[in-house]
Amino acid sequence: MIEVKNLGLQLAQKEIFSGLNFKVQRGEKIGVIGGEGSGKSSLLDIMAGRLIQTEGEVKISGEVLTVAGNISADFSELRMAEMSAIDKLKRTLRGLRDDEIVLLLDEPTKNLDSTGIEWLINFLLERKNLTTVIVSNDRYFLKSTCEKTIQLGKFEVDPMKIICTDRFPRVEPDDFTVPSVLDVRRLWKDRSGETLFKHVNFTIRRGQKVALVGENDLGKSRLVKTLMLAWQDKNSNGGADRGTIKFADNVRLAYMSRVYSSAAARVELENLQKYDVNFLLLDNPTSCLDLPTIEALEKALVDFSGTIIFAEEDRAFINTIANRIIDVAPTGTVDRISTYEEFLANETVRQQLKEKYNLK
Fold it and tell me: What is the pTM of this model?
């Protein structure tokens, strides 16, 4: 189906990869992983005929379809501009001829929430004859769909350390004797007539690591920024339309904003390691990171003994770090002290989410 022999690529006199050999049989799903600049997307470009390799050959039996960032090259951005990420993806993949298509997916889960990712996983698993090569940093997605993975380049980065101001002992997230560090009451935020979040109420205790999840991507990011602004402005409501936000007096906070390039992400990570803090606010920290850097950040956050609130979509990342989950729906929140896997599997949570998202 796909045969790659002694494939090599040089760009601007720099070797990207060399001596690459592998085969993909009809219906097989394989993942491609590696660090930044290792040639993952370039490999897909070569397979699609958009880039000429320096050496070796690629033989593909079938028509190639590329989907990059949930948008197919076969559809104009103008026609799809008003569609959600999952709707764009569904439209792109509609009517595929499984026996004739070779599907190349470049970071397909990047803009999908957990519901969209599950849809894509089921789509691929149901199509036994659809040959697929997937470049992704989403470990949960790769584990759920791929029979094997191909590693490109070096798979290591320098260790990362975020220093906590106070040497806190490890505590259980449901230990209510631990002091609270943040209290949020009746928080509500609209923008241009659209409700981003409302009825947000929670008390965060020292040492809790809280993941903000759910389909309301704008609401999660805005909530993180609202908390940051409230801390900066000494316990205002952070620009929310209603409600109160109260941080403990001893909170020393660092904020990592959402970025849209790997270079900007590296700057944010460097800044995160410069100061002694005891509270982290992170807005989609993995969105522009490669897998080795995600794993380095993951370890640093596990080792951090302070408090963390982060908005994120990476399921493996959330499940490794978080001990409390808050789903931020436009109509309210669903809050549970648990891992993400336990949160998603809980029947009471599922019913609450249906009510919050007005699902039948």
Answer: 0.88
